[in-house]
Amino acid sequence: MGTTSHSRSRRISGQERKARIIAAASSLFAKKGFAGTRTREIARSVGISETLVFKHFTTKRALYAAILAKQSPLSTLLPALKESARKRDDTRMFTLIASAVIHREADSVLPRLLLFSALEGHKLSEMFFQNQVRGFYDFLSGYILRRIRDGAFRDDVDPLLAARAFMGMVVYHRLLSYIFKVPVPHAPELIVETYVRMFLDSLRPS
Fold it and tell me: Where in the chain do CATH 1.10.10.60 domains reside?
């Protein structure tokens, strides 16, 4: 008698099954968008029933939140950023951020997820902004303001615009590389170093 998908699912732990659901959902959403992906497709990709998907994630909102927590590098990066902020280590602070965006697994899952969700007016885009982006920009612009008050950065710079400018550089680089497939003939380390140096040089007093 053949092995059923349900019996296969019993041989893995609940945590592993959740991880597989998140991975499958992320991949399908990134390829087909949210409107084009059905829960049964996610279940089929994992090899479980649709009922089991909803057992682990009772609402789609819960699944979206889990995808964000898995895909976004910002939450895991925060302790190291806070340590750099405490030491006022500007180069390390911005190198950590740029590296997390540029070096992170060379895939296009998160950028595609966010682009699809924004274009489709989906909840994931709003959730990402509320749960990840807003707090991160508050932290980064707050750090820049502190360094302005220290005299390390120019006092004619708007902290929030500066934070957005830096993130604009590195995020756009990622979009060009992994969405539009525009090659850059440099090692990621050199790219990160270049962006960080240009940004900090623009902020430091003459």
Answer: 5-68
